[in-house]
Amino acid sequence: MNSGQTTDWLRRSFARWEVFLLFVLIGTFICGANVSRYFLTASNLSIALAGMTPTAIVALPMTLIIVTGEIDISVGSIVGLCASVMAVCLEQKLPVEVAMVLGVVVGTLAGFINGLIVVYGVLPSLVVTIGTLALYRGIAQIILNERGVSGFPEWYQSIGFGTIDGTPIPWSSIIFILFFIGFAVFLHATHWGRALYAIGNNREAVRFSGISTNRAILGVFVASGTMSSLAAIILTAYLASARSDTAIGLELPVITAVVLGGVNIFGGAGTMIGVLIALLVLAFVQNALGLAGVTPEEQQIVTGAVLIVTLIVFGASEILQKTGTLWRSRRARSLKD
Amino acid sequence: MKSAPSREPSDVAWARDLNNANPSLVTPVIELRGITKRFGPIEVLSDVDLSLYAGRVHSLAGENGAGKSTLVKILGGIYQPDNGRILKDGTATTILGAADARHQGIAVIHQHPTVFPDLSVAENVFVGRQPRRMLGVDWAAMTSKAWELLSSLRIEIDVRVPVKMLSIAERQAIEIAKALSVDARVLVMDEPTSTISSREIDRLFQIVERLKKQGVAILFISHFIDEILGLGDEVTVLRSGKRIITSPTSDLSPEQTVRHMIGTEPASFFPKEDAQIGTPVLSVRGLSGAAFVEDINFDVRAGEILGFFGLVGSGRSEVAQMLFGITQPDQGEIRLGAQSVRFRSSRHAMQLGISLLPEDRHQQGLVLPFPIRANETLPILRQLTQKLGLVDRTKETQIARDFAGRMRVVATGVEQPTNTLSGGNQQKVLLAKWLIPSPKLLILDEPTRGVDVGAKAEIHRIISHLATQGLAVVLISDDAQEVIGMADRIIVFRGGRIAGESIRGSFDREAILLAAAHAERDQDVSATAGAIPTSLETAPPRSPSRSQGLIGRLMRVRELGLVVALLIMCLAVSTREPRFLQGANLAQVALSATLVCIVALGEAIVIIARQVDLSVGAIVATSAFISAEWLEHHPEGWIGLVVLVGCAVGGALGIINALLVAVFRIPAIVATLGTLAIYRGGVIVLAGGRQISATVLPDSYGDIARVHLAGVPLRVWLALLFTIGFGLAARFTRTGRNLYALGSNQESARFAGISERWHIALVFILSGLLCGLVGVLWGARFGTVDAVIAPDLHLQAISAVVVGGVSIFGGSGSVYGAALGAVIFAVLQNGVQLLGINRFWLQAVVGAAILVTVVFYSHLARRAERVERESRRGQQSPRRVAP
User: What's the predicted TM-score (pTM) here?
Assistant: First the structure.
């Protein structure tokens, strides 16, 4: 995949893409309100948010991975694997808490293996995670076959679609917000996050700058595995069931949200805020369409179209921006003050 | 190698009448009059005149930003002038694009040669213009012609080697050969000497002499005043887009030239101050490593500038990287002060007080889109953090401003992205970056490469000043003048060992240069300058080297290896379960392979062109449903119409993909992610939950499934036909070779005149068509068609392609491999079923198979590369030309 486009430093892009997305979000609300008077109700918004949470949680580390120039197609399978592990635990009459812990361990391990093969095998992550997509899903099928488990306790299910008492705010959204803040601070304000952007732009230069690129990339894949396991908990709670085919195809809406959020697919640019807005856009677009009687399949068309139209429009504006940068750089003066 | 004809090859135009080799001074080959070029409000070139005459070298001098590269781009057809005229042989002309420039006989050699790493040397020379026989690309002719061209220039390279194995100097030579092969009348050499060693420069200049004798007009651009005045017959100096002076080089001194370039009195080139030299900061004893570096011993003292002089590849950079923890030495002792150390990593070396400014500032030094500030602080980011790892931005900006000011970086501020800075300023940013950690030892690898005169002098001044402040400096350079001017001591490297040492005060330029090159000077310097080889027997016939044989074998091994793996699998399964070999079962396997195979063919050519198509499954489903529906409503029609309908649907969807990627420039992975959703959603809506069973369809439909030719089902024949067809097309058509070129290096493909858009559009349309066909076949195979078929087809196709040996990065692999990959997966699936292995294991086995294969290929490729590199290194000594 060639990274021919010199994407401007994020500060410059920030204003344009994220603001543009904000307008799209506002537009979505307006359309949604027009479509149905139930759209702006607290309970509806709450449902929309809760439904998006599993995707959103996985989108957080996926942003990090794509910023470094890699990709993880296996997230759906890791979620499925964790769900299957938890299901087996419950079948064995283990306490739910133990199942959850085991799920997180398995997810983290799966992410670690992804990272290990990519970093130390020096292999393209697209191909490796296509392989682990099959492998992890396969293991899920081996341990759970076609059985499904649904005997979850009350409190567990409330993680999925329960709300804080007296408010319409879903518990899962709180969990997501907390993680979002953590990831956003990590990516934008810490030196680790800065290193990820540098790696996505020029891995060699980072190697020559005293930063361990191997550890950084291993780290983001581990994060992806761990967050996938958390998504598995939330998803199984939401669906009140755990099966080996849980979350098949999850990688597609996750990557859609990240790219829609303005993260360059080749790495090196993008913001967490953008991804957040994109997630909201997707959540409410789908919700509004659902209220309008549009089937999930038709919603799929709209999602794909939103992605493509946004990219077309933004691509056009990038060309305008490039001529502006060239002009600015000519007005230089010495920095010796 | 076939024997050469005993007269000059007539199809290469430098077999001209030697009498006309005397330059005609009357009409210039190319004349630029009053050329003006603007970018926005900035006038980059103002009213520039330039005349290039046959058989003469015209040098172009000027600092960075003077307009030289813009002028080159105008000559190369990349830019059009806003004002002014271009005259060729006295008549007005326009140069529209790279291909047009080529047609008009203008060839441009760029600083970083635009080559296709995955393609062979021969293919690189003839890219876009491969010689043809009746049926397609004539490989034999291409190989022999390439060899003729290169050996006539005395360039000894095996034309079958993939170019990624070659050095920059060798790649430049290939570019020159390429230029000759198009009968170039004008050769533009854009800073060819910045990235090659002095001995290679000598060879380059001999080639230039030969080109002059053949009547080629040459425009030569360089930063090195010596070369500008030495090689050129005339020189034009540009400053700020204006032509300052054009003069015969004999009338202009170096100082005058520089004065014209920078407009003021040139500062002294090498303002070395005297520094007090103290105790050794670094001592190295018996250092060996990097496969060829052996027994390096030296000390560097505080305040001392130690010069490492040597040709590219002599081991200087390798030693530097060992001193910075990038690579580990095999043997030897390194002491910092009194303590013996071992650098575990670059961070460790940094902590111990060492800084390295690497050789290639774009690849290894800068993160180009980052602002100056972020680049400068990258190594010390950890120290700028408060708790929780948060970066202290005020402190960061302060430090960045401070050091950028000290280095006199010219920019709008520390927030300016470094990709908009000139070479000299970028280098200064790097210097700042590596001074911030307060090193005790600063290793500078080619710090003034590609930097204009003014900035060069400034950098030298800075280095000298640092030494006076007690810093120990290692200055690595292959510019003898620079090293003699700056160093207190010089160590000469040759072939990974130390070949000589000298101390300031007794520097002998001749001796240093001699020590760095080989003791036996090249025979070809005097003997053959200007003589066109009348017979190619003067060059010894090059027998295939050991490495080339290995490469050849490895290239074929991949497909062969796949066949072997396939046979082993079949053997393993059939020994356990003989039912495998039964006709009915084999037919099953073949059939289930067929559909994926055809899709994989399309996916393969998409991936070879460095794209990807995730929407294949959705296209198949759409085509399947629409064609089945059509057939339901038109049962009496000719069966062929259904196929057309299906292909039309697939083609239309492929065109949409093509539009998004080729015209709107949306990255393929994202575009097809979107269309995957749109197409799938679309067909689901269209189907409205309906299923069409093959039983309601006319018999002719089922016939597709039933027809056998020679006992083999029709569909298998189809798959075979397509595989062979695409395989042959990929190898023997120009379009096919262009796809490989495009996948190998998109930018170079553009320069070679290959239409990027057209070819990218082509692969997506082809993929769509193939998926359309598979859609029609799907119903016949599976009995029912609904909207959710083939949900994972994109993953199956990509897996087959990858297992088949096609690199996900494009440019290499074959469609045969992809087809074999599809068969392997079909056998795997069938085997799991027959062996009674729990079907739930299938997915896991598939995943493991993919991972194992990819790891194996990568291992093979890396081993091949290493073998090739080592064998080439062993051939670095000059070849003796038979008298």
Answer: 0.82
- The CA–CA distances, whole Å, from B421 to B64, B250, B411, B433, B447 equal 10, 34, 7, 15, 16
Give the rounded distance of the alpha carbon of A176 from its chain centre: 11
Task: Report CB contact under 8 Å: B370, A9.
Answer: yes
Cβ distance of B851 and A128 shorter than 8 Å: yes
Query: Six-digit token pair at B641?
Result: 């119409």
Q: Which residue has the tokens 């709008």?
A: B412
- Among chain B residues, CA nearest to A307: B674
**Which helix (H) or strand (E) segment is A148 a member of?**
strand A148-149
Residues ≥6 apart with Cβ < 8 Å to B402: none
- pLDDT value of position B225: 78
> Is the distance from CB of B812 to CB of B860 less than 8 angstroms?
no
Helix (H, G, I), strand (E, B), or coil: what is residue B454?
helix
Q: Let me know: does B858 contact A122? Beta carbons within 8 Å.
A: yes
Q: What is the widest separation between alpha-carbon atoms in chain B?
A: 100
Query: Cβ–Cβ of A303/B677 closer than 8 Å?
Result: yes
Phi, psi (deg, nearest 5) at residue B234: -125, 160
Q: What pLDDT, on the 0 to 100 scale, is given for residue B517?
A: 63
Contacts of B813 (CB under 8 A, 6+ apart): B558, B604, B607, B608, B801, B804, B805, B806, B807
Instruction: Determine if residue B603 is left, alpha or beta; phi over 0 gives left, psi from -120 to 50 gives alpha, anything else beta.
Output: alpha
Å from A129 to nearest chain B CA? 9
Q: Residue A205's closest chain B neighbor by CA?
A: B364
Q: Decide if A256 contacts A72 (C-beta within 8 A).
A: no
Substitution target in A67, A245, A289, A297 with the highest count of B β-carbons within 10 Å is A297
DSSP string, A201-223: H-HHHHHTTT--HHHHHHHHHHH
Mean pLDDT of B159-185: 82
Question: Could B414 and A8 be called an inter-chain contact, meaning their C-beta atoms sit closer than 8 Å?
Answer: no
pLDDT exceeds cutoff 90 at A179 = yes
Subunit contact A202:B363, Cβ cutoff 8 A: yes
Do residues B116 and B163 lie in contact, with contact meaning Cβ atoms separated by under 8 Å? yes
DSSP-based three-state secondary structure for B731: helix
Classify residue A329 by burial, with Cβ atoms within 10 Å: 0-12, 13-18, 19+: middle
Model confidence pLDDT, tens digit, residues B8-25: 343 333 333 333 444 445
- For A67-132, the DSSP string reads HTT---TTHHHHHHHHHHHHHHHHHTT--HHHHHHHHHHHHHHHHHHHHHHHHHTT--HHHHHHHH
Q: Minimal Cα distance from B666: which residue of A?
A: A311
pLDDT digit string, tens, across residues B89-138: 888 999 888 778 888 889 888 777 778 988 999 999 888 888 888 878 88
B410, B684, B685: residue with CB nearest A332: B410
Q: Do A133 and B680 touch (CB under 8 A)?
A: no
B347 neighbourhood in chain A, CB within 8 Å: 210-212
Residue B357 contacts residue B434 (beta carbons within 8 Å) = yes
Q: Which two tokens stand for residue B174?
A: 């290939």
Exposed/middle/buried for residue A14 (C-beta within 10 Å: 0-12, 13-18, 19+): middle
Burial class, B816, CB count within 10 angstroms (exposed 0-12 / middle 13-18 / buried 19+): buried
Q: What angle do CA B489, B493, B496 make, to 5 degrees?
A: 145
Dihedrals phi, psi of B874, to nearest 5 degrees: -70, -15
CB within 8 Å: B685 and A6: no
| Closest CA in chain B for residue A118 | B855
Q: Which of A126, A252, A305 sits opposite B808 (nearest CB)?
A: A126
CA distance A286 to chain B (A): 13
CA distance B392 to chain A (A): 9
Contact list in B for residue A211 (CB cut-off 8 A) is 346-347, 378-379, 381
B681 CB neighbours in chain A (<8 A) are: 297-302, 304
* C-alpha pair distances (Å), B102 with each of A198, B130, B702: 39, 15, 55
